């Protein structure tokens, strides 16, 4: 496993000045721990978060700016875009670019769209399909594809789990053909979001996932195929086992999501080990909310902070979720009161 380092924040042209930039980065990297946490979620004596350090003058100036605007509807987006950020450490290339960009790639590649399923398919366009290029001139068709290939317009308050994961099968014929173009688009977004460390993932299936796939078998009914590994909690055990192995045996340096930590057996020990070994948990708030409904008090974010577990903000699949790393920072500041130390 390769150790990754995120470059330190630096001042940029038309961005925050260097002292303010560093202060702002610290302000959103060190989170206040004032949230109420159930007794069961309290760490053992002597195993809590590190003692707070002295606040620097630059951090104090940043906090003085952020505090008055924190509780306004939607903290100023420009502040969080200009905020120097290290890297989005949990980002899947297959879901990283916008649906609009994928539609244009499909059109350029001469792909077709199955009108019944809104799935990209190879040409020629036979009965029941139409050219993806039609989306350039047919706005209704274009918007229908955007909704089918992302969480755009998905009703709030409903579980988006099935719709979220169905998107990958719909645009999959596009993404495998254009990884280079997609990577370039991700790199451009790194610049737009004022980040200094580009990183994305193209991950093969794990052995545990393959075993589960062998057990579930094949089913041409995709909805039924999806229900099989979910039914009876078949996914829960391999996920929990993988996390324990990663933390305990593999000496991993980072862990993704971690939304269901508090529902696992002996999760407190896992949290203490994660904190002691300084294993960072990658938290994509928008994705967690859309897929699992984990947001606000239902998200273990404050538990991680209470145990002293390092937390980094991420996007997961920003193209599907219709989000960006700056939005994740803004959400965290508003929902959890991120601020300077102290």
From TrEMBL:
Signal sequence segment: 1-23
Record's keyword annotation contains Zinc: yes
Matches recorded under Pfam families: A_deaminase (PF00962)
Cofactor(s) needed by this chain: Zn(2+)
Keywords from the UniProt entry: Hydrolase, Metal-binding, Signal, Zinc
Annotated ranges, domain Adenosine deaminase: 241-338
Keyword Signal: yes
InterPro entries: A_deaminase_dom (IPR001365), Ado/ade_deaminase (IPR006330), Metal_Hydrolase (IPR032466)
SUPFAM superfamilies registered for this protein in UniProt: Metallo-dependent hydrolases
Entry's EC annotation: 3.5.4.4
Enzyme's top EC category: hydrolase
The family this protein is said to belong to: Belongs to the metallo-dependent hydrolases superfamily. Adenosine and AMP deaminases family.
Protein name: adenosine deaminase
UniProt organism field: Streptomyces thermogriseus
Upper classification of the organism: Bacteria, Bacillati, Actinomycetota, Actinomycetes, Kitasatosporales
